[in-house]
Amino acid sequence: MNRNMMQKLSVYSIVFFALSFLHTPVSAQFMPGVPMTQTESLGNGLYAFRWGPYRSIFLVSDAGVIVTDPINAQAAEAYRAAILEVTDQPVKFVVYSHSHWDHTAGGKIFKDEGAQFIAQEKCVENLAWSPNPDVVMPDITFSDRYTVSVGDASLDLFYFGPIHDTCMAVMVARPANILFTVDITSPGSGRTMPFDETAPDFHFYNAVNYLKSVEALVDQENITSFIGGHLVIGEDENGKRIVLPSAGSVSAITERREFWEQVLAAVKDELDAGTMSLIVHNKIDLTQFEDVKGFSEKKMRALLKRVASYYITGR
């Protein structure tokens, strides 16, 4: 494999190599040269906390702390310890980005100290249908918009409909004015193959509109950087693998929207030409996608097949 191909694959392949460690014993090394946990100060009381490939944010004020996604019980213990290294203020609120267990489990440690849990209202229905004893049910829910404040720190929550989950919220940390999104895209990985090319948990019918709404929010609030819910590995000028910073350019959101527009259009055009839905994925010219990080013919055809099934079912 030549160097150009290695550079194209570096962000994608290393991220999902990292994800595989979630199924290994906790004593296993996460990734050579990459610590299991990391806390990064982003200024104005905003911090990014990483456990393995997962990332959450917390906001610190002189009246308490706002925490997002506890990840799981083991991660939450490390998360609480990381917060204690910054402040002795209590955790007042825990905010869920969505209802998937790999981000929402483990919150009991915060509940035990009196924190209230907040989520978009559809998360309650999701968690009721598929309960998990390690997931604390929300105390407070919201519909379209909600602001949680502690002292001079606040987190604005926005809901734009289904995308990766039916209750996915995006957040704006104040006063830092930095966006936080989970499982939509991350800085440096806008034009990247999805983690699971079969996209079983993705709502194609609203994806483009959702991302356009996020872009509109970014423009309205003059937001220039955002934090994603997962670690991304890149390369420095010497080709050495490095952990990219938590925050990066919001341009990745636009790149992600353009990627989904291109994928959806390719399938729709083939269907409109009269190709049967079951063979659409084998008829599309894939050269238009060869610059996508993590591209492989097998994975891209699987994704196109999934999109074709969306077009004939509406879901």
What would you give as the CATH superfamily?
A: Ribonuclease Z/Hydroxyacylglutathione hydrolase-like
Please give the number of β-strands. 15
DSSP strand content: 15-25%
Low-confidence stretches: 1-28
Shape: globular
| CATH fold category name | Metallo-beta-lactamase, Chain A
End-to-end distance, in Å? 38 Å
Largest sheet: 7 strands, mixed
- Give the fraction of residues assigned to helices: 25-40%
CATH class: Alpha Beta
User: What's the order of the H and E elements?
Assistant: HEEEEHEHHEHEEEEEHEEEEHHH
- Under the CATH scheme, the architecture is 4-Layer Sandwich
Number of domains: 1
Radius of gyration: 20 Å
**Helices and strands: which structural class?**
alpha/beta
Spatial ordering of strands, largest sheet:
1-2-3-4-5-6-7
Tally of separate helices:
9
Mean pLDDT equals: 90
Topology of this protein?
Blueprint: H1 3-19, E1 37-43, E2 46-51, E3 54-61, E4 64-68, H2 73-84, E5 91-95, H3 101-104, H4 108-111, E6 116-120, H5 122-129, E7 140-142, E8 145-150, E9 153-159, E10 169-174, E11 178-181, H6 204-220, E12 225-228, E13 233-235, E14 241-243, E15 247-249, H7 251-272, H8 280-283, H9 297-313
Parallel strand pairs: 4-5, 5-6, 6-7, 11-12
Antiparallel strand pairs: 1-2, 2-3, 3-4, 8-9, 9-10, 10-11, 12-15, 13-14
